[in-house]
Amino acid sequence: MTVIDTPTTVPSRPFGAPRVLAGISPDRALTWTEHRAVHGVPALRPRAWLTDAMRAVNLLGRGGAAFPVAVKLEAMPFGGPMTVLVNGSEGEPASYKDRALMTVAPHLVIDGALVVARALGATAVTVAVHDSRAHASLAAALDERPDADAITVVHTRSGFVAGEIRAVVNGLNTGQARPGGRRDLPHDHGLAGRPTFASNVETFAQVAVLARLGAAGYAAAGTRDEPGTSLVTLVGDVIQAGVLEVANGTRLDALLPGRPGALVLVGGFHGTWVRSTAGLTVDRAALRASGSPLGAGVIARPHADTCVLAEVAVVSQWLADQSAGQCGPCFFGLPALADDVRAFAAGRGSEAQVVRRAGQVRGRGACAHPDGAVQFMSSAIVALADDIAVHRAHGTCGRPPSTIFPLPRSES
Ligand code: SF4
After folding, report:
1. If pLDDT is split at 50, 70 and 90, which confidence band does 411 have?
2. Residues in contact with 179: Cβ distance below 8 Å, sequence separation at least 6, in sequence order
3. Which CATH number among 3.90.1640.30, 3.30.70.2740, 3.10.20.600, 3.40.50.12780 corresponds to the domain 229-301?
4. Hey, CA dihedral for 55, 83, 294, 292, is it positive or negative?
5. What is the mean pLDDT of residues 117-130?
6. What is the maximal distance between C-alpha atoms in the chain?
7. How would you classify the pairing of strands 272-274 and 264-266?
8. pLDDT score for 409
C-alpha cells in the first residue's frame, strides 16, 4: 500500500500498484538491503538512452512547473565540469510528498541522482533539504551504500520562495536564498557557476524507476499522454489524508468521494479553487488546460460546515508575507490583495478591486510566486461567491474557521 501519513493515522486504501513507494514502511526508511530487494541496484544508463526514455514517457518535473525532464537534460552541455542538484527544499506548506519520500525511500532518490549524474558525466551531486528528519534519513542512507561518495547532503533554509529551485541555487552559492531573474537558469549558471541539472526529489525517484523499467515498462501504468504514477498530498476532508502514490489518470473524484459541489483546492498555495472535480484527473497537461494545474500535487478539500473564506484570508496573508521583497508589484501588490480578501471575510470587499489589483501583479515578478498567489486568491473569490454574499449580508457565516492548512493561526 502506498500511503504515508502526514499528521494522522489513516486506514490503507490502494490507488494502483506502488512504484516509488514500493515496499516502504510509513514510519521508517527502507534500508539499503531492503531497497535493493525491491528496486535492485541503480540502472545506470547512457545519456542518449535516458533522454529517449524520458521523452518516450513524457516525464514531467514534479516540483510544480511540470517542465519536460528530457528537455532539461538535453540543455546540459556535453563534457566539462557540471553538477546535479536534488531540490528537497519542499517549500509548499501543504505538500509533504518530497519530505516523505526522502524519509522513507531515501535510496531511491539517491539512485535517481546517480542515474542522472552517470548519464551526464557529472562528478558531484548535492541534495538540498531543510527538513531535519529527511536530512537524517538521507545521511544515514549515504552511510549505508558504497556508491555515493560524490553525494553531499546540505541543510537549506525553509520557506516557500526559498525552496524555488533558483533560490536554492542562489542560497547555496551566496547565502541569499532568493530567486534570480526568470532567465537565470541552473543549466547555464548553477552551483559554483557550473552547469547544473536541477530538479525536485520526486523527479529523481521517477528517473530511477524509469531507468530500471525502461520506457515500455514505465508506461504500463498511467495514461498514454502521461504514463507512470504521481505522488499527491491529500489534505482536509479527503478519503485518506497524507501522501499517496496514484497512477496518472486517477480521477480526483475517486480521491474525494461524496459532497458534490464542495470546494476543492487543486495545486496547493499556488493553486486553484474549484467547485467541481468532475472530469478532472491526475494528468498535468489536462489539469493545466482546465485552469487548475496540479502544481506540487496538493489536493485539499475543507470540511463541511466550516468557513473557508476565513482560511483563505489567513493563507492569503501568509502568501503576501512570503515575498522576498525584490519586486515592487509582488512586495506591495500581494499585501493589498490579502487585505482585499480579509475584507470579504469581514463582510465588505470589492471583486472589481481584486480583479484590478491582480492585473497589476500578474506576470511582473522575477519568480512565479506572485502569479501563483494571485491565482490562489482570485480563484477563491470566484469559487466562494455564495459565501461572500452571506458574509456581506450578515457580517459572518456563523461557521467556525476552516483550519486544514499547516499555518500559524495568529495571523488571522
Ligand atoms: S516576485 Fe516576489 S517572491 Fe519572487 S523574487 Fe520578486 S519579490 Fe521575491
Report:
1. very low
2. 161, 164, 166, 167, 170, 324, 326, 366, 367, 369
3. 3.10.20.600
4. negative
5. 96
6. 67
7. antiparallel
8. 54
Which atom of ligand 1 approaches the CA of 167 most closely? 5
CA distances from 265 to 83, 148, 235, 355 (A): 36, 39, 9, 20
Query: Half-sphere exposure of 266 toward its Cβ, with a 13 Å CA cutoff?
Result: 28
Report domain extents, the chain: 3-218, 229-301, 308-411
pLDDT in tens, 341-381: 999 999 998 999 999 999 999 998 888 899 999 999 999 99
Single-letter amino acid, residue 86: V
- CB of 161 closer than 6 A to ligand 1? yes
Mean confidence (pLDDT) of the chain: 91
Shared fold status for 229-301 and 308-411 = no
Model confidence band, residue 2 (pLDDT cutoffs 50, 70, 90): very low
Q: Which fold has domain 3-218?
A: Rossmann fold (3.40.50)
What amino acid is encoded at 44 in this protein? Answer: L
CA dist 171 and 154 (Å) reads 11
Length of the chain: 412
pLDDT of residue 412 exceeding 60, the answer is no
**Over the stretch 257-301, which tens digit does the pLDDT of each residue have?**
889 889 999 999 999 999 999 999 999 999 999 999 999 999 999
Judged against a pLDDT cut of 70, whether residue 158 lies above it is answered with yes
The residue contributing the CA closest to ligand 1 atom 4 is 367
Mutate to test the pocket of ligand 1, among 157, 160, 176, 330 (most ligand atoms within 8 A of CB): 330
CA of 167 to the centre of ligand 1 (A): 10
pLDDT of residue 182: 67
pLDDT of residue 97: 93
Distance of CA 280 to the CA centre of its chain: 18
Under DSSP, is residue 244 helix (H, G, I), strand (E, B) or coil? strand
What is the assigned CATH class of domain 308-411? mainly alpha
As a whole number of angstroms, the distance between CA 370 and CA 327 comes to 10
For every residue of 85-140, DSSP letters joined together read EEEE----TT--HHHHHHHH-HHHHHHHHHHHHHHHT--EEEEEE--HHHHHHHHH
φ/ψ (deg, to 5) at 366 = -75, -15
- The cell for 104 is 522513507
